[in-house]
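COURSE: Structural Biology Practicum
ASSIGNMENT: Worksheet 4, Part C
STUDENT ID: 0417
INSTRUCTIONS: Below are two proteins. For each, the amino acid sequence is given first, followed by its structure token string. Answer the questions at the end about the second protein only.

PROTEIN I
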Amino acid sequence: MFQSINNAMDIAMEKDPSTVLFGEDVAFGGVFRCSLGLQDKYGASRVFNTPLTEQGIIGFGIGVAAAGTTAIAEIQFADYIYPGFDQLVNEAAKYRYRSGNEFNCGGLTVRAPWGAVGHGALYHSQSPEAFFAHCPGLKVVIPRGPIQAKGLLLSCIRDQNPCIFFEPKILYRMAAEEVPVNDYTLPLSEAEVLREGTDVTMIGWGTVVHVLLEVAQMAHDQLGVSCEVIDLQTILPYDSATIEKSVKKTGRAW
């Protein structure tokens, strides 16, 4: 999956000369190598390291986005996004509203490796999306695999609202798919029904989706229960219509 993310940023930088990528260690490729080779291709003025300050990274991203640049900010681990929480919820999310739409930082996308791997302990395993899921003005997106990662990331980068893009880091090298090499996007705020069912609706995102698909198969095989599995994909604003349609059919949701 890390290659599809790299490819998405490569396409974004190639097609939009205003795009810049910055964060801790992104110049040499980052901890998970998602930005590998991009500084060599686009130069140190467009792909560069920052000091170790998440508040500063996001604040800088808000500033350059407000000035008209397409900004891709990397937080090295989602667990360390909290020092930048105020910048995201009080500045980025509200910038358009507080200026009466005179200014905005809609060109900002914040990327962060997300979730548990199994050996990361408390500071490298967190899933902080719930903290941002109730904040109007932000979009929060979590892909389940490489194809979705590329298409949804390009959509976030091009969307005219500040986006937080959480990347399930356990999938960086475990998830492999035939990802189209061309430029494509996937719609934000649109859930995907991955398995049709009639008895219960199961909703998830990111890595959890794969667990739900396994559980749905087990429920079918062992209990004769028909489960409908939905990948929410965008946490905020989420696709309520798809969920409502499914729950009206099944009568239950989990």
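PROTEIN II
(use this one for the questions)
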Amino acid sequence: MFCWNYAYIGTQNDEVFERVAEDTLRSERMAEMAPRDVSGVAWAYAKAGIDNEPLFQGLIAHAIGLLKDGLAQNCHHRAQKSLARDIYIGDHSAVDGAVDAFDTVSLSDLLWACAEKQFLEPEFLALCKEYLIKALTQPSWWQAERFCRYPGTLSRILMAIARLSADDHTDLFQAAAPHLVRSIDEFTIRDIIPLIVAHAIAGAHDPWVLASLDARLEALYHEGRLAYLDSQEMRQLKWGLEQLGLGSAELKGDLHFSAS
């Protein structure tokens, strides 16, 4: 995870990233990596803009195994200290040989990294969707909320998946819909934009969700939050609103002027 610090503060050090990749690709090292380790390394390389296809291939192959184990062990019910493997026994971050399984935080980082590098592995994406749908549609609303942890992570996940694949993602967007509506007032302007764009890309038109997104965006607009956006974010929002038919005339007028 040493490389994460460099990526986070925006410091480029080729030697550090080269050595981290070499170490991570050692079979012994890869085997002991927990979900958050995989996500952290992938996020760091994507954030730093470093291309290393063998590293991503290794990380995603390992993530596939972790997701399969997570599904078999029903880790979507409770991600914290629920993913057990013999190799984790004695690990300082484990409890009784179990580490934190994937949740929306670690999956959002990993999927974002894949989207940034346009690294698509169909089996990995299918497992992510299966795991997420099980978590979001489980009978216990409380457990589903614990799995999500932070509402903004759902925004990043939906956007990353929409960017990665043009397949039909209706099942995932439907599973996420109640959580998006329930948490709508917690979303910031930088959560709302990816949600609008993701729904536009995926062709997801749940009227309940779209009405909630429209109302939240309008509230943020009147709070002056659009002033914090850069030109690219303005253009993305403008495109998403056009595709979905959302936004008041006043908002779209200001957005058209700002995005020009």
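ANSWER KEY EXCERPT:
Q1: The mean pLDDT is 92.
Q2: The longest strand covers residues 83-84.
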